[in-house]
Structures are given as C-alpha cells and as structure tokens.
C-alpha cells in the first residue's frame, strides 16, 4: 500500500488490521501466505463496488466496509470455506479523508472480530471518480468440498434464512414501495445494509458432506438456483408456499401481490441455497439448530432443464427470470 | 463475474483466459485452488489503477491490460515467486463496450502466453467515474524466500536493467522535457507503457538463495532501496557512477543535469534491487547471463540509517527522497 504511505494513514488505521502473519503488518507490498498449514482448498473471490452503484451515496464508511466484507463472506460460505483473509483496493476521492478512513477501518475491525479473518494487503489510490472498493477474499476448506454442479434429480432444495429481504431492504432504503410499518421498514433497511452471511452454517454444511451442491443467494433465489441447475444439468421445482419469507416480506406481499415475484427474484439476500438427498433432511435440520440458522426445504431438483416455482394450487408462477439488476 | 453475464462478454472474451483449473472457466464466482500441489509460499499482491491517474487517458485497452499485469508481475518477481494467476475487477464506464473488452482481453492473453499464468476470477461492474482496474496477483515459491529485511551490513547492492527509464518514459509520454531524438524518445515511451518485469531473473534469484533481500523498483530506486534498508535496520551507499542508465537516460542527463536525481528517484522502473554478500558476485553475474538479464553492482549496505548516493568525486548527492508521485 506504499502509494498512500505519504498520508501516514495506512500505518495508523489499516496496519493494525493486518493480524495474519502473511500480511507482515503491511510493511511489504506482497503478502506471503505459507500454504503448508492450510486445508486442501483455497477459495478465492473478487468483487468491486462503486459508490452510487452498489451502495447508497452517503452511506456510513463503516457500513460500506462491513457490507463489502459480508457479501464476500457469503460467497465463501456457500463453498463451505472458512474465512482466512482479504486484500483491499481503495480508490478514494478527495472527499474521503482521515475521518473516512478511520470509520471505514472500524467497520473492517468489527467484521474481522465477528468472523475471525484478517486484512492481508492491498493498495490505496486517489480517483477523481466515485469511491470504488475492490476486495479479494480468501477462504480455506478441506479438498473437494461443495460446488454448484453436484446436484442429482430428486435431491431436495434447501435455503437458509429468509428470501427476498435484500430486494425489500433496497426498496425501503430508496423510499420506494412497499409501505411497511416503522419497525418492519427499519428491519428491512438494516438487513440490506448489513447482511448476515451464513458463515457458521456454510462451513458446517461443507464439513458434513451432506450437500450435493450449494450457491449463495446474491443474484436472487431463482437465478442462483438456476446456477446450480445449469451446472448440474438439471431443473428444479420450488413450492412458493414453502419458501421462508420474513415478516416484512409477508407484509409486502399482503399489500401488493407482485412482491412475491420480486422477493423470489430479487438479489442481495446472502443466504445459501443448496441441494441434498432426502435422506439428509434430519441431519440438515440439526445442523441449522446447532449453528442457530433457520433452514427450510423448498422443493426438489428435477430432470427438466428449467427452474419452476409453483403456487399453492400447483400452478407455475411466471416471472422475468433475469434475476438481479443493480440500482 | 455474474453481474456482467447479461452482456455475454465474459463468456466470449474472458472465460477463454481462465485456463487454470482453479478458475473452472469462470462458471463460478469463486475460484478453488488446490493447495496440495503448490510450492510452500503463496505470494499475494493487489493493485488498483485508475484511468487518467495511473495510465494516460486514451491508452489502448491491450496496453492497459499488459501494463497492469506486468506491474504486478514485477512485485511477484522481487519475491522470487513464479506467476500463478490473477483475479481482475473491472469497473467500466459507458464508453467501454465490446470492442474495448475484446482489445483488453487480447492484452491479457498476450501477457498470459508470455508469462505462463492464468485469469482465475473477478468481477465486472459499471461505474459513472473513470475506468478502474483492480488486480490481485498470485505467485508461488518455495518456503522462506527473499524478503526485504534480510540484508546485512557489507552486502553489495545490485540492480537489474536500467534505472530511471520509468520517469523518462512518463516525461516523454506527457510531452515534457527532456528533448530526446526520435528513436530514444520512442524507446522511452515504449518502456513506460510496457515495462519488462524481471520474472525469469527474480525466480532464478529466489531459487538460488544468493540474495539476502530484494524489492522491485516501483517507487524509485532510492525509495525502494530505502525499503530494504529500513526493513533490515541498515543504510546504504550507492555510487551514481555505477548505476546503469539507458542511452535515453544518459542523453537526458547530458542535456539537463537535474535528470540524474530524477532517474534515481523516479518510479515505474519495474527492475529488481537486491542485496547479496560479496562472495555471491560471480554467481549473480552468471544468473544474469543465463536469464538474459543485465545486472550491475551499484554499492553496498552500511551500518548507518540512510540511503546515500555519491558522485564520482565521493560527494553525497542531495535530492528530495520523497520518491514517486503519480501524475
């Protein structure tokens, strides 16, 4: 991160976060990770987020940091990978000074404490354009863990948590419909700003060997289940009545029935959708209980080639399957 | 890279570059790298570059790609790390369409062929601001290779290639002084736009165990040697007359003596500065010959705490040690 050293801010705010020995306290541009003590697989994921595109302008820096890390933790969790560390590139505008860095670093620190990983390195530069944060996340797991392509026809489809809260939280944050009461609106906003990646459950699921395939729900449930279906050469049948929705989601659907489709296809839920043989159902429920993670079976994989969602009368629900579009 | 899949460009232009099995053809957001077959250390380096800040606006996309990769390869080379792969985040403006991606991908492909590494994953998003490229580079090496902190007092200081060509090439590219003849000016521009990272030499030097410390020359020779000096708790004495300058650098100094200081402190050379005991001199020269890399001994490490450069009369040359500033 030498280019920013002249401001002295790296040493003060970011170096203390480089707690992994590989980072050598950010005194070097290059992190050196000893691979001998790692589990068999290293999971690597990179994301870029742009102010005004991927987060709301004026969002608190700590929230931006937390969200960026949590989104990447969700990707790792869906692979059953334990968080190891991350490299961070910050392109800052003239508006982001020491106070911004200090607050951003607080978000990083809170996240590291919660999830037990470490800043490993990165780069900090100036940009005339919007603030842009790049993140490469590293996780580790035993060799040959969950992927997207292992589902079999007849496997059950499961999800963690609640589906559609990302879309709901975004709509509320933008001041758009639906009209929710104050408490539900605040909960939806909070879940959008600070998603809860299913790290403990994902790691436990990976170690259990129960799941045949998994993906995180970031593009929307239908699109992400479709990723599993395509990779496995299958289709899927989901019962809308079995999909878990939050109190906010249920209130939104009660006020406006088009919200069913929006919850099922909206992005940014950061839950895990996964498949498993029927024989694993009891063990999966137990895993959910042990990690404090709600889990629900919502359908099954089919020999067809499409992901279909059925209403309570068994009729397929039609909606644009395009999945997630950024605001 | 799912967010950009809607444009179909990932499949067409970037997926063919994901030749490493860890990338699984970019069909998944997360790359899974099996660590069992790796050498002992994984070297990780992240950089962000912004159009108009780190490269000239209007630069050819293939050149932007080549330069971004080569700059990161230089960091890996200074650690003796063999290139393994990279994750790429692209924040593109509306101006960068399919033609831009196609040309950018050609630069990536040319680089991968030349240096034997692979795209591993990434993310492509839209930005209203300037084009921003984030890169996380991965290399591998045997455990416990070269670092910055291992130099001893009395060790000789060596550099590869020519010092100052980065600063010279930038000045020429910006149409600033010095006045060089057409051929030298073209050579300086070319070396700035497409630096030659010392990958083969860096890997060989790391494997040889000859060097006590190494760094890449990216912030300027004086600043990067200072990184070694500080990390080793030492100083250094450099003889200006022993520093290798290119024909362009020598012509610039002949026209304007202030160019000596600019060449010694300018950035973007992407050479390697390293230290080694005097007994290693012959073996180092041989290593340079075997890898086709010019190497020169330019001074030695001292028990002092400063990096000093002396002229032919033995007088210290004074200049601002601030090192590299971006244009």
Chart the SSEs and their pairings.
Two copies of one chain form a homodimer.
Chain A: H1 9-14, E1 31-34, E2 41-50, H2 61-77, E3 82-92, H3 98-115, E4 118-126, E5 132-141, E6 156-160, H4 165-173, H5 182-193, H6 199-208, E7 213-217, H7 221-232, E8 235-239, H8 247-255, H9 259-265, E9 271-276, H10 281-290, E10 295-302, E11 307-310, E12 316-317
Parallel strand pairs in A: 3-4, 8-11
Antiparallel strand pairs in A: 2-5, 3-5, 6-9, 6-10, 7-9, 8-10, 11-12
Describe what this molecule looks like in 3D.
Two copies of one chain form a homodimer. Chain A has 327 residues and is an alpha+beta fold. The first copy, chain A, has ten helices and twelve strands. A seven-stranded mixed β-sheet of chain A has the order 7-9-6-10-8-11-12. In chain A, strand 3 (82-92), helix 3 (98-115) and strand 4 form a beta-alpha-beta unit.
The separation of the N and C termini of chain A measures 31 Å
Greatest interface by residues involved: A-B, 66 and 68 residues
Unreliably modeled segments of chain A: 1-6, 321-327
Q: What does the largest sheet of chain A look like?
A: 7 strands, mixed
Structural class of chain A: alpha+beta
Strand content of chain A: 15-25%
- Quaternary organisation: homodimer
Average of pLDDT of chain A = 91
CA gyration radius of chain A, whole angstroms: 20 Å
Order of helices and strands of chain A: HEEHEHEEEHHHEHEHHEHEEE
Characterize the overall form of chain A. globular
Number of helices of chain A: 10
Extended strand count of chain A: 12
Strand order within the widest sheet of chain A? Answer: 7-9-6-10-8-11-12
The helical percent of chain A reads: 25-40%
């Amino acid at each position: 991160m030498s280019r920013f050293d002249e401001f002295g801010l790296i040493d003060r705010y970011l170096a203390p976060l480089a707690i992994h020995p590989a980072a050598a306290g950010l005194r070097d541009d290059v992190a050196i990770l000893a691979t001998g003590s790692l589990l068999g697989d290293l999971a690597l994921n990179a994301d870029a987020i742009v102010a005004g595109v991927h987060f709301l302008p004026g969002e608190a820096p700590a929230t931006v940091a937390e969200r960026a890390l949590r989104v990447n933790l969700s990707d790792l969790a869906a692979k059953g990978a334990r968080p190891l560390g991350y490299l961070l590139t910050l392109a800052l505008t003239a508006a982001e000074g020491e106070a911004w860095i200090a607050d951003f670093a607080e978000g990083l620190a809170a996240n590291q404490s919660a999830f037990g990983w470490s800043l490993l390195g990165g780069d900090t530069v100036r940009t005339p354009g919007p603030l842009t944060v790049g993140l490469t996340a590293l996780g580790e797991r035993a060799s040959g863990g969950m992927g997207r392509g292992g589902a079999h026809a007849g496997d059950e489809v499961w999800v963690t948590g609640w589906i559609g809260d990302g879309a709901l939280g975004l709509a509320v944050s933008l001041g758009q419909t639906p009209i929710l009461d104050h408490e539900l609106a605040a909960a939806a906003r909070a879940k959008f700003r600070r998603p809860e990646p299913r790290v403990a459950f994902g790691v436990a699921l990976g170690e259990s060997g129960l799941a045949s395939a998994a993906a995180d729900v970031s593009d929307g449930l239908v699109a992400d289940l479709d990723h599993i279906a395509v990779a496995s050469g299958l289709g899927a049948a989901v019962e809308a009545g079995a999909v878990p929705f939050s109190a906010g989601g249920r209130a939104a659907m009660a006020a406006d029935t088009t919200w069913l489709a929006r919850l099922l296809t909206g992005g940014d839920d950061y839950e895990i959708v996964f498949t498993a043989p029927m024989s694993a159902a009891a063990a999966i429920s137990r895993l959910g209980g042990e990690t404090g993670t709600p889990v629900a079976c919502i359908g099954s994989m089919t020999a067809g080639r499409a992901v279909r969602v059925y209403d309570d009368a068994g009729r397929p629900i039609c909606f644009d399957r395009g999945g997630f579009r950024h605001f």
